[in-house]
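pinned: reference chain
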Amino acid sequence: MTEAPSETTEISAQAADWVQRRHFWTWSDADQAALDVWLAQSMAHRVAFWRFNATVLRTERVIALRASVPEQMPFWRRRGWNMTLRAVAALIVAVSIGAVAQTFIVKPTARVFATTVGGREVIRLNDGSTIELNTDTVLKISPGGSARDVILEKGEAYFQIKHDAARPFVVTLGEHKVVDLGTRFLIRKEKDQLQVSLLEGRARFDAPMSKDTPSIDMRPGDVVSVKNGSVSVSRKADAVLSSQLSWRNGVIVFDSTQLSAAAAEFNRYGGKTLVIADGAAGLKIEGTFQLNNVEAFADAVHVAFGLRVEERVNEIRISR
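pinned: its structure tokens
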């Protein structure tokens, strides 16, 4: 490993924080998924985590052994001293973790919610707001579930936010932000583009201060799109915006959608990869389909256009 000292310290602090949360906080499946993502990022992450986790496990074993020693023993190993040893063992853990992670312990650390490909999750905040995560999505939020600032790192999320004039709800999207003023909106963040759709209420889309793009006050039906650094605003009908939320009911709605785009949408949810040959990519289809049933979609395309469907182990290929 060739990390610089500052990077090594940062990784150690993050590892210590993960270990602390895993052993001493309420640990959920979402927490485990987020930890797995962090561990997969580098060997340095895994080594740091294993080191701190081993320290905690060793200390827990020492405490268990001390507690099992019978009372018929020298005075210095009886109950009072045993309690002291437990306290010292706990202090060792706190010191070893705190030495490199004091910033993370003193300051509240973000909780990470991550869905798998094809997965979905509903986050309920203490203020009554809810956030629904779609497939392959990562969102960070402060501990306790009451924070009004979150970070959407990737994926798609639907927000239903309770109004609080004193504390606007802010979603950070890389260099952009959405400031919600009590509303419902949908955000989809992919590698090369970003889309914010406002369904109800009011919201403001903020561009970076370093750019000349002014803030955009959004109205219901507005869709702000960012691609290659360019920001544009369009209007969409209520029916179109509702269809964008069809994943909440386990379906995908296509309205004059090219087969290439329909395939890309299906492939977001896992299962067999749908491949459309160039000769058929431009054909358009309408309809509602189960998002986890790509075979039914292929059958519909075969009947509607007379296309050839080849089903393989991990792939379905559609061609003329």
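why pinned: Residues 99-106 have pLDDT under 50 and may be disordered. The two ends are 51 Å apart (CA to CA).
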